[in-house]
Write a structure and sequence with these properties.
This protein is α+β, with helices and mostly antiparallel strands and 422 residues long. The chain has 18 helices and ten strands.
Length: 422
């Protein structure tokens, strides 16, 4: 039985060489993260990260097992702010009426099943497919807007807005409101998934209140003036019955969908485009055969996933690979590591859009919390890669490529993607 010191939950025990390596492990995203995770995966696949205060699981088998075990592991901390909220920020949220009931990803048991039973009737492949003509129109519009330019920031000029315009159509948010809602929603990433300063928390709290009030107003408007959109449809399913879904929950999940439905897709599009252009043979393979676009989506999520880690809480004492993790401990599921596990993916550090088992990637999660918006994200990205491969086969990365990323151990979120189109 291995025991490791240095954690408030640890029993006394010897510190071995692998534990010393874990002490220097940096969990926040950086280009060197995958090499560090490979060393941990090989030599100490379960370890304590002092920097973030989490046990980290790096092997695919272990991560997959936790995602499928709602009895021993709770999802309640998936959106827990990395830096505890300052009382001043909490006061802003309270005074603004911000009253979250929990995101899909952080609900457990019967509550999760009840909420997902409602939202899953609206967020499903059948309904997403109806959006395909709209998505293709948006992609064509975006390509027309940049065509003829020499240098383009693909993140700023295409990827930032396009996924938002798709999900906001689903939500019935007017085009004129998109810049405001995108700004408000973006501050949640800073609050929940990155160490935040006092100033960031104050600004973030104000934006989250504005966003919450916008969603609350939408719910009350749809009660009186129902439309064919997400909020109207969940209210129709609710049919005035709080035991199905309360009005607060309706606001909460309108709020959540408007965030989750575009931020991750924006980041994933950018990560995959960068990886394609860093591997010109793969970009040319896609340009020669755009039917590879669907598998390109999967391989991009495996190799350069926008979600690099997800969180759980142990509800009882558990053990992985001889390491005891006590009840109450916080656990980080390293998707970035699991997606490059040598036991599952042959030659995992090679980006290969023809990889046969790329769809085994865990970036969308798995089990009962599997991302409800995954079919829509897959459809959007497939269309984007198909159309860009046809229109811009000579596209390449602008040099030097000095990509910067958000300081977070949850997302791989780049700040720019400069490219040369011709």
């Amino acid at each position: 039985m291995n025991t490791i010191t240095g954690c408030p939950f640890h029993a006394a025990g010897a510190v071995d060489a692998a534990s010393t390596a874990a002490e220097s492990f940096k969990p926040y995203y950086r280009p060197e993260l995958h090499a560090a995770l490979e060393q941990q995966r090989r030599h100490e696949p379960v370890f304590w990260s002092e920097e973030i205060g989490y046990w980290v699981l790096t092997r695919y088998e272990d991560v997959y097992a936790v995602l499928h075990d709602g009895q021993r592991f709770s999802a309640r901390n998936t959106s827990l702010p990395v830096t505890p909220m300052h009382p001043d920020a909490l006061a802003i949220l309270k005074e603004g009426g911000y009253a979250p009931t929990g995101a899909h990803s952080s609900l457990d048991g019967d509550v999760h099943r009840r909420i997902r039973g409602v939202t899953g009737q609206v967020l499903n492949l059948r309904d997403f497919i109806k959006l395909e003509p709209h998505i293709r129109s948006l992609v064509a519009e975006a390509m027309d807007r940049i065509d003829g330019k020499d240098d383009v920031d693909l993140l700023r000029d295409v990827n930032y807005e396009l996924p938002a315009r798709v999900v906001f159509k689903l939500l019935g948010i007017p085009e004129a409101d998109i810049p405001h809602v995108k700004k408000w929603a973006g501050m949640r990433s800073v609050i929940d998934f990155s160490p935040s300063t006092y100033e960031q928390q104050i600004v973030g709290a104000k934006n989250m209140v504005a966003y919450w009030q916008y969603c609350s107003a939408m719910v009350h408007d749809r009660l009186k003036n129902p439309r064919d959109d997400f909020t109207s449809r969940i209210l129709a399913i609710r049919n005035g019955d709080d035991s199905v879904m309360s009005l607060g929950e309706a606001t909460n999940h309108t709020f959540g969908v408007a965030f989750a439905g575009h931020e991750t897709t924006t980041n994933q599009l950018t990560n995959t485009f960068r990886t394609l252009l860093q591997n010109p043979d793969q970009w040319q393979a896609l340009c020669a055969d755009p039917s590879l676009a669907a598998n390109t989506v999967e391989e991009g999520m495996r190799y350069a996933g926008a979600v690099i880690g997800w969180r759980r809480t142990a509800l009882e004492d558990v053990e992985f690979r001889g390491v005891k993790i006590p009840a109450g401990a916080r656990i980080m599921l390293s998707f970035a590591s699991a997606n490059r596990d040598e036991d599952v993916f042959e030659n995992p550090h090679r980006f290969d859009i023809r990889r046969k088992n790329a769809r085994k990637q865990l970036t969308f999660g798995n089990g009962v919390h599997f991302c409800l918006g995954a079919p829509l994200a897959r459809l959007e990205m497939k269309i984007v890669f198909e159309e860009f491969a046809k229109r811009f086969p000579k596209m390449k990365l602008a040099q030097p490529d000095e990509a910067r990323h958000m300081h977070t151990f949850v997302f791989r979120a780049p700040s720019a993607l400069p490219v040369v189109l011709q």
